[in-house]
Amino acid sequence: MARMSLKEKLEVLADAAKYDASCASSGTSKRDSRKGGIGSTEGMGICHAYAPDGRCISLLKILLTNYCTFDCHYCINRKSSNVRRARFTVDEVVDLTLGFYRRNYIEGLFLSSGIIASPDYTMEQLVEVARKLREEHGFKGYIHLKTIPDADGDLVRQAGLYADRVSINIEMPTEAGLKRLAPEKSVDRITGSMAGMKEAIVDARDASKRYRKAPRYAPAGQSTQMIIGADSATDGDIITRAAGLYQSYGMRRVYYSAFSPIPDASAVLPLKRPPLMREHRLYQSDWLIRFYGFDPHDIRDAADGGMLPLDIDPKLAWALKFREGFPVDVNRAERERLLRVPGLGVKAVKTILSTRRHRILRLDDVARLTQSVARVRPFIVAADWRPTLLTDRADLRRMLSPPAKQLELFAA
């Protein structure tokens, strides 16, 4: 086989990495090169992720290799897949990262890999890339390492010494789905790695409180990803699984990636991908659990037969099913009840709570805090507004659903 150039390798291994959704750079500590070293986690900058304050951060997102000894049905890089293969050396990844940074193309690295030789060998190679960047080149930019759960636990934990964030993919929402589509992977090994990483992160945080010079360890925590639509798991199953991961392993994020049909696909996979709106509704449900006080059973209650409606968001779906809890008085209700009102976000609720200490809120006041007061009106009471029979209207869902429209092929 002809020797591949670095550019050809980059073309293959950057494209192979596009299926991994868990490459956000939010949550890390602030570092820059003004006190020595190379790189920064700050400022504006190849993959684009977004920090909590809205800054766009560019990451070099690649695989170390797309060769793999595993044969997971849903993976385009599986052993039996007929794809072009390539492999970087450790030094090639280091040089690419530094070269792209110096040209101001990127601000960090997202590095994953197929399994080559053995899980331990692959994990050693991933850690060595991060170690060289940090210790030999003083790189202070963002690093996200995708760990290999089948590797030795000590090797997996070493990733946190050099990476800002580590991720260990749970892959499928259910154990049955994982056994069927990735028989070489084990839920116990995956969750065991998650538990070990959580323990290491907690220990490092405790040490940093006691010792000023304690080494930093995975400051942006750990994340994971689930593939959606490759098996029969319902939205209720998926959200219940995600809530368990947040609670048990201290996940910073759970990512949802809609299954995409791949070349020469296995016969056990569906023929088409799920609607992208389903992925969006799962992210909205995830947000409700993390920031709005919803529980997994609330999401299940909002779903029909375990599946969330695609035409309306899960918060509105829940409110329509439990109309007896509405309307909510914006001048009297506690925070938890206000957060259940469709159309009111966390910031809007915070503003309502602070403003009503000084004066009584009217409907116009609430309108300034939401993108669509029409969505809010059926569910609230204000000083000059009471919905009367609006909340109980049989056609309320139709009234609040976005209107269907025909897309134009050649729209301006």
What does this protein structure show overall?
By secondary structure, the protein is of the alpha/beta class. The chain has two domains: 6-274, Aldolase class I (TIM Barrel, Alpha-Beta Barrel); 322-400, Orthogonal Bundle (DNA polymerase, domain 1), CATH 1.10.150. It contains 15 helices and nine strands. A seven-stranded mixed beta sheet has the order 1-2-3-4-5-6-7. Strand 3 (108-112), helix 3 (119-136) and strand 4 form a beta-alpha-beta unit. The longest helix is centred in the middle third of the chain and has 24 residues, at 187-210. The chain is globular. Mean pLDDT is 87; it is low at 25-29 and 38-45. GO terms for molecular function: catalytic activity; iron-sulfur cluster binding; metal ion binding. InterPro entries: Aldolase_TIM, DNA_rSAM_put, Elp3/MiaA/NifB-like_rSAM, Endo/Exo/Phosphatase_dom_1, rSAM, rSAM_sf, RuvA_2-like. Residues 58-285 form the Elp3/MiaA/NifB-like radical SAM core domain. This is Putative DNA modification/repair radical SAM protein. It comes from Novosphingobium marinum.
